[in-house]
Write a structure and sequence with these properties.
By secondary structure, this protein is mainly beta. The chain has 2 domains: 7-58, no CATH class; 63-231, no CATH class. It has 4 helices and 14 strands. The protein has helices at 18-28, 44-57, 82-85, 173-176; strands spanning 7-9, 34-36, 62-64, 68-76, 92-93, 99-109, 114-116, 121-129, 137-145, 162-171, 182-185, 191-204, 211-218, 221-230. Strands 4, 5, 6, 8, 9, 10, 11, 12, 13 and 14 form a 10-stranded antiparallel sheet that branches. It has a two-stranded parallel ribbon with strand order 1-2. It has a two-stranded antiparallel ribbon with strand order 3-7. Strand 11 (182-185) and strand 12 (191-204) form a beta hairpin. The longest helix is centred in the first third of the chain and has 14 residues, at 44-57. It is elongated, with a radius of gyration of 27 Å. It starts with 6 loop residues before the first strand and ends in a 12-residue tail after the last strand. Residues 54-59 and 234-242 have low confidence and may be disordered.
Amino acid sequence: MVLTWQSVFLVGGFAANSYLFNEVKDKFSPQGIDVSRPDPNRVNKAVADGAISFYLEGFVAARMARVHYGTDVSVPYKATDVSHRTRSSEVYVDCLGIPHLDGLFSNILSKGTRVTETQEFRAPYIEHSLSRESLTTVKFPIMCYRGNVKDIQWFDEDPDMFHTLCHVEADMKSMAKGLKPRYHDVNGDGTLKYYELDYQAVLTFGTTELTAHVEWEENGITKSSPAKLIYDADAEIPSANH
């Protein structure tokens, strides 16, 4: 084997081992290769400095999502949709008297997507309530899908391969206090006053952990509120590398 480099520099805990250092030096010195190491009492500093540089400089520019990330949503029931009809036994009526179905997987980040540290992924939400007070806090799950069903849409298509990573919870008092009442016609029997919360969950997966906040539009101005992540005791801490 022809060696083209001129020097070898040992770092980390192994570099402090004099036996290892001398063995490596005896191997490469006859070939004109200089073997060096830091002060044996300070070799671990190189490891610490490397970790700090990784954090400060963002050495890894992008990560690859190894699973699908999303959340569960409910949608208005459509009798003309075959996937809805097969789940007709799960239909429920919401506060406005509109039939809905739960159990739809809303994909936020697809498996195989390259994710940078600052890239944001958004999930739109609309919530209805008969009282403004019940919309002052929102909470929703972040799920991951590890299965192989292509373009999966419903949780019951491969239920064992879905896992709840955490719940996102945000204080929406600032938005809720400005909500104006809306009115819904209830089958010709009069109108029902209700309130609508229309917002987006904004997620970032590019750092070593998931982060989140919520945004909404108010009089043409984008406003936001921080969100906290609530993990179950046995939940896996997510990142795009997982």
